[in-house]
Every structure is written in structure tokens, then in C-alpha cells.
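task queued by scheduler; priority normal; single chain, no ligands, no partner chains; default sampling; output format set to C-alpha cells
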Amino acid sequence: MLTDLLQNIYKRIAQLGQAIQGLKTSLDGLNQNIEQKVTNLNEKLKEFSREIDLTQNKHLGVLKDIGEGTKEELKKIQEGLGLDALTNLIKKLEEFEKLSSEVLNQDTVNLILAEAINSVKNLKEQMPNKV
């Protein structure tokens, strides 16, 4: 009876050992599965990060292109409206004003007027008297 009891205990210990071995195998499989999932997650995060960088760079590039295009269009509008020509006209009028103020100073005006008056007098004297 004692031997039967010991054999039952040994059988139970053997079954327990087998169960522990099965549990160890399951845990190893679970650990491997978890490790695989973590590796996959890391890969997906790397891909996601690359996609974010790529998308960010594309958006920045697109915004830069939009800015350049807008700048060019504004230049065309500016030329189309004649803003450059208007600026040049203002500049030339300012130069003309400066030259005019130099040429039309009081002494020059007096001299031109005196010559005009003398010319009119001379023409008057040269004309036959018609009365």
C-alpha cells in the first residue's frame, strides 16, 4: 500500500513535471509571439516615422512651390498693372522737376523773357506800318 501510494505520488510528480514542461513550452511560444509582435510594432513605427518625414518634406516642398508660384504671379500682375512703369515715370518726373528747377531759375527766366521781348520789338520794327 505504501508502494502504491509512492507510485501514485511519483506518477503525480511526473504528470506535474509534464504539465510544467507543457507550460514552459507554452510560455516559450508566448514569449516568442510577444517578441515577434514587438518587432513588428517597431518596424511599423519605423515605417510610420519614415512616412511622416516623407509627407512632411513633400508638404514643405509643395508649400515652397506654391510660394514661388505666387511670387512669380505677383510679379506678372505687377508688370501687367504697369506698377514698374509707374515707378519709372515718377522717377523721371522727379528728374525732370530737378532739371526744370535748375533751368528755370529767375536769372534764366529773365534772360529768356528779355530775348523774347527784344525779338518782338525787332519784328514790330521790321513790319511795315499798317494803320
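post-processing summary
- DSSP finds three helices and no strands in the chain.
- The radius of gyration is 52 Å.
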